[in-house]
Write a structure and sequence with these properties.
This protein has 389 residues and is mainly α. The chain has two domains: 184 residues, Growth Hormone, Chain: A (Up-down Bundle), CATH 1.20.1250; 194 residues, Up-down Bundle (Growth Hormone, Chain: A), CATH 1.20.1250.20. Helices cover 84% and strands 0% of the residues. The protein contains 15 helices and no strands. Helix 3 runs antiparallel to helix 4. The longest helix has 30 residues. The termini are far apart. It is found in: Cell membrane. It is a multi-pass membrane protein. InterPro entries: MFS, MFS_dom, MFS_Efflux_Transporters, MFS_trans_sf. Keywords: Cell membrane, Membrane, Transmembrane, Transmembrane helix.
Length: 389
């Protein structure tokens, strides 16, 4: 018995997104200590390379729409898969900072090429009723990628950091082949009417855009400083791969996001996700010397992180179904800038505030934003019922 349309698209998308986001996006930070030691790079050089990965990701986001308009919605996913393979191979064999930077930027761009493209593919190929489920499955592929990355990190402890990138290259090639096999080609997407296009999208998406600013900022703070918290405390370095695996395993619940949205609504799910991530940040900041508390924080974060990204894909497709990819891209671009600004702001605050208090402050921001979203949803229901808020 063959897979249904949502099953085929979901499986292929989960594989490609899992490699692009769950592996290629986070592998640089995971292997950074070993890269620094082997290649003798300064902190400045390592930081510049890390920043360059954002440029690759943003370029993929902005160019994916043009490629889709000319060659169909599947074309950006093929480009992204190719960038993932080539980038990971280059990093695995890099002997100089220049080659390392080229490989990391290429691999980092993969996420920009593929994620929003699947929103268009799903809305054009999958029946409407099955779309939330397919989008949730695709986004939750990141969890599988994180689990695989944690496994590769364990292998690298006994070998070389290059094994991690070699494994990513193999996974990216496999995912690209699965994508070509299961995802049908689509006709080139019609170019939208430019008159009022961007402004009308922004008007329809202002609540998801606000959510993206907070969500991506708090998530990147967690990923940026979780390993640093372990390093500064009394826990062994081997805990870091366990953290990544725990995030990935608990994040598998993200596949249920579509069903949960259909029951309680996208806005409520988004608010709950911000609350969950806030709780994980608070636990990490308050009890980082406890192995149990640290693992619990990772497990809680995995749920909020994966459902939080899945609900954004479902939410934007609900609000603007005829331009789902463009709507999702706007939120991702806003989130990308937020992801860059948040660590810079945190780095400026840590010397005077301290890492623990910073995590608590970020936690409070996430929790209050979740409450604000919930209150906004309540006010909308009151208005819809004919009563003044």
């Amino acid at each position: 018995m063959g897979l249904s349309a949502d099953g085929r698209i979901g499986l292929a998308g989960a594989a490609v997104v899992g490699v692009a986001f769950g592996m290629a996006r986070y592998a640089y930070g995971l292997t950074l200590p070993s890269v620094r030691e082997e290649l003798g790079l300064s902190e400045l050089a390592l930081g510049l390379i890390a920043s360059a990965t954002f440029a690759g990701y943003l370029a993929g986001l902005l160019l994916a729409g043009r490629i889709a308009a000319r060659h169909g919605s599947r074309a950006p996913t093929t480009v992204g898969g190719t960038c993932g393979v080539l980038g990971a191979v280059i990093v695995a064999f890099a002997q100089s900072p220049g080659l390392l930077a080229v490989g990391v930027v290429l691999a980092g761009s993969a996420g920009g090429w593929v994620w929003a493209a699947y929103s268009d593919i799903v809305t054009r190929v999958v029946p409407v009723r099955q779309q939330p489920r397919a989008l949730a499955i695709i986004t939750t592929g990141t969890s599988g990628g994180l689990v695989l990355l944690g496994g590769l990190a364990v292998l690298a402890l006994a070998g070389s950091w290059r094994l991690v990138w070699g494994g990513i290259a193999l996974a990216a090639a496999t995912a690209a082949l699965v994508n070509l096999r299961l995802v049908p080609r689509t006709r080139s997407a019609p170019r939208p009417d430019r008159q009022g296009g961007a402004s009308s999208l922004a008007a329809a998406l202002w609540v998801p855009i606000g959510y993206s600013v907070v969500y991506f900022a708090v998530v990147v703070i967690y990923f940026t400083y979780a390993a640093d918290v372990v390093d500064r405390g009394t826990l062994p370095a081997a805990v870091v791969p366990v953290l990544y695996s725990a995030i990935g395993l608990t994040g598998m619940v993200g596949v249920a996001t579509g069903s949960l949205v259909q029951r309680v609504g996208s806005l409520r799910v988004a608010a709950l996700c911000l609350g969950t991530v806030g709780a994980a940040l608070a636990l990490l900041g308050l009890a980082s010397d406890s192995l149990t508390a640290t693992i619990a924080s990772a497990c809680i974060f995995g749920i909020g992180y994966m459902m939080g990204s899945a609900v954004l894909a479902v939410w934007t497709a609900e609000l603007v179904p005829e331009r789902a990819g463009a709507a999702f891209t706007i939120c991702l671009v806003v989130g990308a800038f937020s992801s860059v600004a948040a660590p810079a702001l945190a780095g400026a605050m840590i010397p005077g505030l301290g890492l623990g208090p910073l995590l608590i402050l970020t936690s409070v921001t996430s929790l209050l934003s979740g409450v604000a979203l919930m209150l906004h949803g309540s006010s909308r229901r009151v208005v819809a019922g004919g009563t003044e808020p």
